[in-house]
Specification:
The protein folds into 2 domains: 290 residues, no CATH class; 58 residues, no CATH class. Helix content is 66%, strand content 10%. The C terminus is likely disordered. The chain is built from 13 helices and 3 strands, in the order ααααααααααααββαβ.
Length: 350
């Protein structure tokens, strides 16, 4: 069991590393490939790679796992946003630093949470509100150019716009997340990549030199396709919460790779933003791993008094918080506790 958990942690970190390659490697390739064409090749690479994996997995799929007609609105929304988001990201990366773009990717957490709250009425914890505030502050620091005037970097604003699109896309995908992940990722890659390719051609962008196409497709398969695959493998053992906590390392791995691969210099403004972003991410991780359970218990007692059988039902609830483990657990009550519950008039029927 311990080896299985360590393997799952390895998968989760592999997912983070795979996605972290996206920004610095795209930065290098954007010197030879136009932004919209680059976005198209990345998603086509994911679609081709995961689609090939899907051919081997297809026979083991249950019918209810396949996307249905009722899922069409969310699927279309997912595809359209996955066309727009990577185009905005590639444009942002081209006119911004790779390290800035990697960190600003964390704004996707803010966008996803606020859209879930405002549109889908999901609850937001105090920890997550704190994380939203810190990540937003860090994003402002990274985006503000200063120089004696109130001016914001166009490249950083494009990366934030991409993160916002992916925030909305995350909420669309969440509505169909119980369906086949292989099918969802294959559709993402094939249709979003094709849509971006058509857009690139309409904008007059040309296919890059043949030697750069395999590199872009391979990056798309690793950064988008393979990262999702390893993420899913980790979820099977760790559960969704712990996996996403490990995955939060992706932007910071991306920053490290930016310094190694792109040789970008550090600035005091960037270091300040990095510290604020780390603090915000810590709140996200703590909120992810901290799970509150409310348990409702119903106890039924039967006893005979003066020749008459009486039945008592007592219902009570209690909440407690603990680290998320995805493990089932139960509660036992002593006889004294049960007698005390029975003595309470609240929720008691006879």
């Amino acid at each position: 069991m311990k080896d299985q958990k360590l393997t799952a942690i390895g998968y989760a970190l592999a997912a983070a590393v795979c996605y972290a390659l996206n920004v610095p490697c795209s930065k290098l390739l954007l010197g030879h490939i136009s932004p919209t064409m680059m976005a198209a090749l990345l998603y086509l690479g994911a679609g081709i790679g995961v689609g090939t994996m899907y051919l081997f997995h297809h026979g083991r799929e249950r019918p209810e796992e396949r996307l249905a007609k009722a899922d069409l609105p969310y699927t279309v929304g997912m595809v359209l946003l996955d066309i727009l988001a990577p185009i905005l990201l590639m444009l942002g990366i081209r006119s911004s630093t790779s390290s800035n773009a990697s960190l600003l990717g964390n704004f996707e957490i803010v966008a996803t949470t606020l859209i879930a709250l405002l549109i889908f009425r999901e609850a937001v914890s105090k920890r997550l509100w704190a994380a939203i505030g810190l990540i937003t502050l860090s994003s402002i620091v990274l985006t503000f150019e200063g120089s004696g005037s109130f001016r914001f970097s166009a490249g950083s604003l494009l990366v934030l716009a991409a993160a916002s699109c992916w925030g909305l896309e995350n909420n669309c995908t969440r509505r169909i997340s119980e369906k086949s992940t292989y099918q969802i990722v294959t559709i993402k890659g094939a249709f979003s990549g094709s849509g971006a390719l058509v857009t690139a051609l309409l904008l007059g962008e040309r296919l890059p030199a043949l030697r750069f196409i395999p590199a872009a497709l391979l990056l798309g398969f690793v950064a988008y396709g393979l990262s999702i695959f390893t993420y899913i493998r980790a979820q099977k053992t760790l559960g969704a919460a712990k996996t996403s906590a490990y995955y939060a390392a992706a932007p910071f791995i991306g920053v490290l790779l930016s310094f190694v691969l792109v040789r970008e210099p550090l600035s005091l403004r960037y270091l300040a933003a990095l510290l604020i972003m780390i603090a915000g991410t810590v709140f996200v991780v703590r909120d992810t791993l901290h799970h509150v359970h409310t348990h409702v218990h119903t106890h039924t007692f039967t006893h005979t008094h003066d020749g008459t059988t009486h039945t008592h039902t007592v219902t009570h609830s209690h909440a407690h918080a603990h680290a998320f483990t995805d493990e089932k657990h139960g509660h036992r009550h002593s006889r004294a506790e049960l007698e005390a519950l029975l003595a309470k008039p609240l929720s008691r029927t006879e």
